[in-house]
Specification:
Number of strands of chain B: 8
Largest sheet of chain A: 5 strands, mixed
Order of helices and strands of chain A: HEEEEHEHEH
Helix content of chain A: 25-40%
Shape of chain A: rod-shaped
Shape of chain B: elongated
Oligomer: heterodimer
CATH architecture of one domain in chain B: 2-Layer Sandwich
Helix content of chain B: 25-40%
CATH architecture of one domain in chain A: 2-Layer Sandwich
Strand order of the largest sheet of chain A: 4-3-2-5-6
Radius of gyration of chain A: 31 Å
Strand content of chain A: 15-25%
Strand content of chain B: 15-25%
Number of helices of chain B: 3
Radius of gyration of chain B: 26 Å
Structural class of chain A: alpha/beta
Chain lengths: 145, 142
Amino acid sequence: MKLRERLRSGAEIPTSSMADIAFLLIIFFMLTAVFATTEGLQFDLPDDDPTQLDVQPEEAIHIKIIGEGQHLVDKTPMTLEEMGGYVQMKMQQNPEKPVIIQTEANVPYFVMIDVFDLLKYLEVQNISIPTQSEVERWKAFGIFE
Amino acid sequence: MKPHRVRRIPPMIPTASMADIAFLLIIFFMLTTSFSPEKTSVELPQSEIRTEVPRDAAIIAITEEGIIRFTDGERPSFALGTAAELGPLTQEVVRWIPDKEFLIKADRMVRYELIDAVLEQLRRNGAKKVGLLTEKKIGGSV
């Protein structure tokens, strides 16, 4: 009996789909990546000393934020643009002039950031952001209303 | 003269090295990705002026619902009950690294009183440097 000759094919691993798998993984990693925000507005906090007043409020520009687009600059209502002009004018007279940002409790955060950003844009050197307790303390000193 | 017969090879694109390239890209992305301990998703306020903040800073995240989360920059973040709980945590961080930067990653719609409460705790407990994380302002100028 004549034995049929077996057809021998070389052993191999199918690798053609490897690229598909790898690209799928790349796409998965790219879509699930959360990008870390590493930029923002920076400032220094004053020391916690109740007897010390870093900013003399009567010399400063006092910005009170009472709502979205509602600001009292030295007790005068102003828009963001008007505030920009006013602060710039004051800065030309005295570049060291401190600016106090006081924000009401119920105002959204971004309104305060808009004002802070504007002051940074105008290159104001001394920006003071007192907390509510500091404002109370200044009131107690009688130099803030 | 007998003409030389041209042998025809079917055209093909070599794809064997495709997987190598793809895996190389995966390894590249995995090595260059920096993992942040704070992954809370918030809609940050936008600003024109932005400066680079240190990557190892402590982060205080505040969501739109007013939930405060804290991380010292190394361990994963955890939720706090009130802003007052931030006090001892700040003290602990400042004791080891006195000029550690604290970043506030707050949603743009958060009521300012929460930010105020956080700043108050940071100031009282010896934090020196604070950063407010923002996104790049798209369109429009200040």
